[in-house]
Amino acid sequence: MPDGAKQTIVIQNGTLIDGSGKAPTPNEAVVIEGPRIRCVGRIPEDIRNADPDNVEFIDANGQWILPGLIDAHTHLSYGNPKLPGEARGRGTVRPEFNTLRAAWNAQKVLRSGVTSISVPGGSWFTDVAVRDAVKLGLIQGPRIACASQMIATYGSIEDEDPSWVGAPDHSLGKLCNSADEMVAEVRRQCKHGVDFIKLADSRSGDTQCISQAEMSAVVEEAHRRNARVAIHSRGAGSTRDAALAGVDWIIHADLATRQDLEIVAEAGVRVMPTATFVERLLVWGRKAGQEIVQIDLTHIEQRMDDMGLMLQRLRELGITVLCGTDSGNYGWMPYGELHANEADILVRYGGYTPMEAIVAFTRNNAYAMGLEDELGTVEEGRLADIILLDEDPVADISVLKNGAHLVAIFKDGKRVNLDAPSPAEGMLRFGETLAEKQSAA
Ligand SMILES: [Zn+2]
User: Fold this and answer.
1) Are 32 and 410 in contact (CB under 8 A)?
2) How far away, in angstroms, is 75 Cα from ligand 1 center?
3) What does the radius of gyration of the chain's CA atoms come to, in whole angstroms?
4) CA neighbours within 13 Å on the CB side: how many for 48?
5) How far is the CA of 35 from the centre of ligand 1 (A)?
6) Helices and strands (H, E) in the chain, number of each type
7) How far is the CA of 329 from the centre of ligand 1 (A)?
8) What is the pTM of this model?
9) What's the CA-to-centroid distance between 73 and ligand 1, angstroms?
């Protein structure tokens, strides 16, 4: 047991939002023993009469108890925004430095109330290393489920170099131009301990880069090895084929037609829209100005409107939505700040109720961790990942954003020390000026 930690923790008198979609209920006690939730509801007699030295009672009166949040789309090893002064040579500093930086950023994620992340793609096996270091208690961070390099063909997202260069080791994509090569890569990655495989269709969805037969080959091999499969798929054809091939979840799907999404619904495949990234581009683009961001903001506005329609369509069709932000993918997607934005977008753009958004952000996302029977709800026997808030997220989903209303975080039954200085303290937040930081202090 860590210094001073008690055997049993009892969270009393809070309002429980258990992640299942059930209405919030006043709750006498959530009892945590070791890494798990022993019971929810009445305090057991033995605990009521226990030696107070062994039990920590936390009064959550006026507070809300939720499952720890799960961001099902965070790229820990991309390490964006970069640190001031960090060397940038492609592939020259990445493996070793990347791992240390990812470990440092992981702490920021956890301290924002996100107790688990699913990592759909990264450099080398950086995320596997950080995952294991967290698991073994070497460093503090969220629970991690991860893929490694995305399986790409010529023209896929993350096939960035000319064909005569190929895909260097430091690429985020691994070039595999046949089903056989893909299957061999699945085997290699599984051998190195990934939790799932990430397939990469084209960046913008204009061309389909992976055939249905290739997807099926990957799914068959990965499932045989107990690994799931996710795909970056924006286009209609790739989305439909991914559903038919039994890919476990589809990331984006924003250019799929209603008919394609009907096939996705029929197949029971989950979709992770990842709208935060688009909205953030819009918000940041407007702030920084078109000349600086060099993107057509009218195009992004259109894309966000289309995204809203798609979210509504997913809801109408009863497709299970996963919540992911793409944090760490770009300099304007910093760790620990945007993880709850996706839930907020589901409500504002997609017409989801705040409770539906909370379920997507907790219970639904446990699937992307491979832990749908263990995580994502506050229930007897589940892993004790719990947060306490001082505002009601059902009344206003935006209170989840940026950890602003967090009172406490528990992961694996252990309380995260929020009094210790944050690893980000003293650093400028993305887009913040020194004058802004000084006036905030
Ligand atoms: Zn991503």
Assistant:
1) yes
2) 6
3) 22
4) 6
5) 30
6) 13, 19
7) 6
8) 0.94
9) 6
Residue in 5, 13, 3, 14 with CA at minimum distance from that of residue 55: 5
- Rounded alpha-carbon distances, angstroms, from residue 8 to 56, 57, 378, 414: 6, 9, 16, 10
- Classify strands 29-33 and 25-26 as parallel, antiparallel or unpaired: unpaired
Q: How many CA atoms lie within 13 A of 217 on its CB side?
A: 18
Distance 257 CA to ligand 1 centre (A): 22
Closest CA to 214 of 174, 183, 256, 249: 183
Q: How far is the CA of 388 from the centre of ligand 1 (A)?
A: 29
Contact (Cβ atoms closer than 8 angstroms) between residue 79 and residue 105: yes
Q: Which residues contact 387 (CB under 8 A, 6 or more apart)?
A: 65, 66, 67, 68, 69, 113, 115, 406, 408, 409, 410
**E strand intervals along 304-390:** 386-389
Characterize 349-376 residue by residue with b for buried, 16 or more Cβ atoms within 10 angstroms of its Cβ, and e for exposed: bbebebbbbbbbbbbbbbbbbbbeeebb
Calculate ∠ Cα 171-172-174, nearest 5°: 75
Residue 208 has which token pair?
A: 């389909």
121 alpha carbon – ligand 1 mean position (Å): 7
Ligand 1 center–CA 142 separation, angstroms: 18
Sheet holding 69-71, edge to edge: 69-71, 114-119, 143-146
Q: pLDDT tens-digit profile of 65-76?
A: 999 999 999 999
CB neighbourhood size of 1 (10 A): 8
How far apart CA 368 and CA 322 sit, in angstroms, is 8
As residues whose CB is below 5 A from the ion ligand 1, the structure lists 326
Find the 72 Cα to ligand 1 centroid distance in Å: 10
Ligand 1 center from residue 324 Cα (angstroms): 9
| Distance in Å, CA 206 to ligand 1 centroid | 18
Q: Decide if pLDDT at 202 tops 90.
A: yes
Report the C-alpha gap between 324 and 94 in whole angstroms: 25
User: Measuring CA to CA, which residue among 372, 303, 424, 422 is closest to residue 67?
Assistant: 372
Question: What's the pLDDT band for 90 if we cut at 50, 70, 90?
Answer: low
pLDDT tens sequence across 217-230: 999 999 999 999 99
Span from the CA of 250 to the centroid of ligand 1 (angstroms)? 12
DSSP symbols for 259-298: HHHHHHHHHT-EEE---HHHHHHHHHHHHH-HHHH-S-HH
**Among candidate residues 398, 298, 308, the one with its CA nearest the CA of residue 351:** 308
Q: Where are the beta strands (DSSP E) in 191-257?
A: 196-200, 228-233, 249-252
